[in-house]
Description:
The protein contains three helices and 20 strands. With about 350 residues, it is mainly beta. The protein has one domain.
Amino acid sequence: MNEWSDFHRPAFRDNRWLETSWFGFWVPEHGIRGHVRAAFRVNQEVVYHMVNIYSRGGDLLDMDFYDSQMHVPLASTDRYSDFSLTSGLSYKGHPAPEKYTVKFVSRCKRIHLNLEYEALMPPADLEFTTLPDGPAGFAAFHRDSGVGVPTGHIDQTFRVRGELWMDGDRYDVDCVSNRDQSWSPRAEFNSLPGTFDNLHFGEEMSFSAQALETPFGKAAVSGAYILLGRDLRRVKRAEVSYQRKGFLTESLRYELEDETGETHEIEADTSYAITQDQGSNGITVMHYCVPRWRGKTGYGECMWHWDIPEMQRIVRHARKTDPDLSVEAIFEALKQNPDTLPAKARWK
């Protein structure tokens, strides 16, 4: 079996089993960022499909396009790298994981997407990306399933070419972007706060990292890699700092050392941020970034997320004292003093 073509099906029928596939793309000259994601509950034979495109800040209705469909049927003939859903989304590896065709036609006919992905690197798994002294990853695929089932996650950088039609407007897509894939039993609650950062300088350099924030506001990098041309390198050391108002990122800075001993400094300012419900009880703030590295300017994204019920609990607790507190003020105060996090209730 080609693990990049077929689903990682467990030997038992755990309904929590989830396999995900995410592809990103950019139209930098128009400030457009796009995400295409399929999350497969293979034991339930359904797919959670999400496509979103944004080019300005705000909330859901400020996005250019957002389509979220649950319980899309998964056919018995569908494979991980070769499927066509009734939602209008299709993937085709030819072969996976080196090349993919990703297509989407929205039911409302607003969006036509036709993209070709060509790998600039092989898939980088957790063994490759996990930092030697980093914290445990915040996502479920970093944790032992507890029942001996192999779980995993990979990241990969691609050259992306194709076209996006949006409300009759055509955009050429020619960029560098990422995909990721994960497979594990996955609950739909209680995620920890953290970030996915993807920063690109054409085919000259790409950097991808994950960071965990426990306590809130204190980020520590758990996994990363750097791609210099076609030279894929492990990251030995990575320190990140975020300038934020509440949980909205204004700028970020990385100091890195790769496996060869070469050091890198990357800074980025946020142009705008869009907030959305990412599904599975997760809130995501996607920040469109303009990164700088060795005198060069690129494009990138900082994706911050946390658990919605937990954040609502924090907000409700703070407003018992002051009903007029804004969400931004509540999380800014929590960032300054994480010890004020309210204790969780214990049920008898």
